[in-house]
Amino acid sequence: MSARKPDTLGGRAAIVGIGATEFSKDSGRSELKLAVEAVQAALDDAGLAPADVDGLVTFTMDTSPEITVAQACGIGDLTFFSRVHYGGGAACATVQQAALAVATGVAEVVVCYRAFNERSGRRFGSGVEHREPSAEGAALGWSLPFGLLTPASWVAMAAQRYLYAYGLKPEVFGHVAVTDRRHAATNPAAYFHGKPITLAEHAASRWIVEPLRLLDCCQETDGGQAIVVTSVERARDLPRPPAVITAAAQGAGRGQEQMTSFYRDDLTGLPEMGVVAGQLWRASGLTPADIDVAILYDHFTPFVLMQLEEFGFCGRGEAAGFVAGDALPLNTHGGQLGEAYLHGMNGIAEAVRQIRGSSVNQVPGAARALVTAGTGVPTSGLLLGADGCHARVSAVSGRRGAPSLVI
Amino acid sequence: MTRDDLDVDPDELYGRLKAYEGRTAASGGTGRDPVNEPMIRHWCEAMGDTNPAYPAVAPPTMLQAWTMGGLAGHPGGSARSEAYDELLALLDDVGCTSVVATDCEQEYPRPLRPGDRVTFDAVIESVSPRKTTRLGTGYFVTTRMNVRAGDGELVGTHRFRILKYAPARPKNAPKPEPAPKPGLTADPARRPRPVINRDNAGFWEGVARHQLLIQRCLDCATPRFPWLPGCGACGSLRWEAFEASGTGTVFSYVVMHHPPFPAFDPPYAVALIELAEGVRMVSGITGVPYDKVRIGMPVELEFLRVDEELELPVFRGAEA
Ligand SMILES: [Zn+2]
């Protein structure tokens, strides 16, 4: 939707299939193979065949082109292929692109995918050439010579300001880590399955970049994840309960940079996620109280707190207490801190499982899920709903657990 | 940033090595001689190649020969880049002091003919994960040279792979002294260079004159930093640069602990400075220990000579 008026996308497309490879530290195979396996698994899950697919969407950062994935999967003619930029910020936007194509009839079945060997990092034949420095390179170049070199350090700069503004200590970030790891502990697919942590362990973990500790930082993963999107009508004929795309949005803020938006506002929030939040709420007519489960992008813990505030689940500076109070089921797969770092795509799959009722940490009766993409970068978000209660179309709406079945 | 295995040095090193992928390995190289019949004839005689197409065209496999400097080297000096030298130095520093060429691949988009003058540049295409071979443990570094002729038409690519490795110790040999830790080596890798392009070159020209230059919109007078061609407030492309007073305060800061980078010595603070003019910039802090930097601390501009070619604007803090 535009930032000013609601769109007509909601309720027209649904996620009908999810599929992933195992999440590992060394996949032992190519990124293309991972992508193909994920796409095929998602199609199997959807009860669709490769021949049904006419659209593919991925990240600009992905190394497996749409045409090559199609070729290797037995997918035929494509009428829609698209890529989204800005790293993990692309995750939910791939589904938005798919929904746009489906809603307008540009394509009928679109698969979104992301696969990489992020951990083992075997990137054969990568041949990016640096010539005249690009604007992207120059933006980063203001930080590197001074030794501000890592994603953790870029997040830490805003995290420090957040703590200062609200009179908090770095230990408050531990609530996010503990929540994620608690969920991962009961998720057999999670890397940290069976390994919960305590607040004390968080507080005792070593500094990476003050005020961020080791347990504030996500892991790195080898793996792939794919998501199948088609029309709601077609979804009703498929085996799984559809996760209807209630709303989808992208957002970039004024003065936006990639991870180094240091030069705007007060550094205590994520304005780009505010752009996403405003659209999702307006397009759906929903409010934070309607959300049964939230899957919020968590490469670093402080940005989970800021997201909760941008979406209005709690007031500014209150998110750590909100997480500690367990008021909202959050990152029930274990998040990227606990399950796997798949650039947010595994979070979309978890939201789908919650709507289907098949999560390992199922929220009883979950009918509306919020899922977000990469933070600190131009980003995106989705509201997913069970069929029949995807948006607030009447005044009737229950708090979580009681989906209103009005169409 | 990984969360698991953070203490494993190979991963950290590999991250630093990977950062060289895509960087220039050589630039602005020119062939010492034009493609010529005598050299083609000598090559064919030495190779026993009687193909009648030669010497009207050059044997494709001569590609690299046209880029070589000969025994005396290239008259204008090597085209090899600082980035490539840094990468090799980094590998030297961790003990991968030996090198062996392992293989090459070439592609020939069009044949070279006598009279062609070649130019070439090269890019660092990939650095492999750590590998252990019979020779020892090290990293495969692949460079790709693009060879061009005439007005820049690509005539060949030459992919060249070396193994830069620490030789395996013969059995029963005494254990060598442990290698010095990265960051403590006698010849530490240099800091990342500023990324200078046509939109921000003026800033770095100012630094060279010991001036901290900020842009100001000529239409709405909004000051801006970082340097960009247009105004974020009104969109105007008209701007002037003016010299900042050099005073400011710490708006935020971090303390870098991990992973270590050879050019820096953790723990160290990096600050986001809010200048008196109202703009912010990332910079280093001098005069205050890393654990005494605080938000709101007043700071004063100074210039730090980092190495023979890098000078940076940094800020001296005044401890409360
Ligand atoms: Zn202006």
Beta fraction of chain A: 15-25%
Secondary structural class of chain A: alpha/beta
Written as H for each helix and E for each strand, in order along the chain, the element string of chain B is HEHHEEEEEHEEEEEEEE
Query: Structurally, how many domains make up the residues of chain B?
Result: 3
CATH topology of the largest domain in chain B, anyone? Thiol Ester Dehydrase, Chain A
Helix content of chain B: 10-25%
SSE layout:
The complex is a heterodimer of chains A (407) and B (320).
Chain A: E1 13-20, H1 31-46, E2 55-59, H2 66-73, E3 80-84, H3 91-103, E4 109-117, H4 135-141, H5 151-166, H6 174-185, H7 199-204, E5 207-210, E6 212-213, E7 222-231, H8 232-235, E8 243-251, H9 271-284, E9 293-295, H10 301-310, H11 319-324, H12 335-338, H13 345-356, E10 368-372, E11 379-386
Parallel strand pairs in A: 2-3, 2-4, 9-10
Antiparallel strand pairs in A: 1-7, 1-8, 4-7, 5-6, 8-11, 10-11
Helix pairs in contact in A: 1-2
Chain B: H1 9-18, E1 24-30, H2 37-47, H3 82-93, E2 98-107, E3 118-127, E4 131-132, E5 136-149, E6 153-167, H4 201-208, E7 213-217, E8 223-224, E9 239-243, E10 247-256, E11 268-275, E12 280-286, E13 298-305, E14 311-317
Parallel strand pairs in B: 12-14
Antiparallel strand pairs in B: 1-3, 2-6, 3-5, 4-5, 5-6, 7-8, 7-9, 10-11, 10-13, 11-12, 13-14
Zinc ion is lined by residues 217, 219-220, 222, 231, 233-234, 236 of chain B.
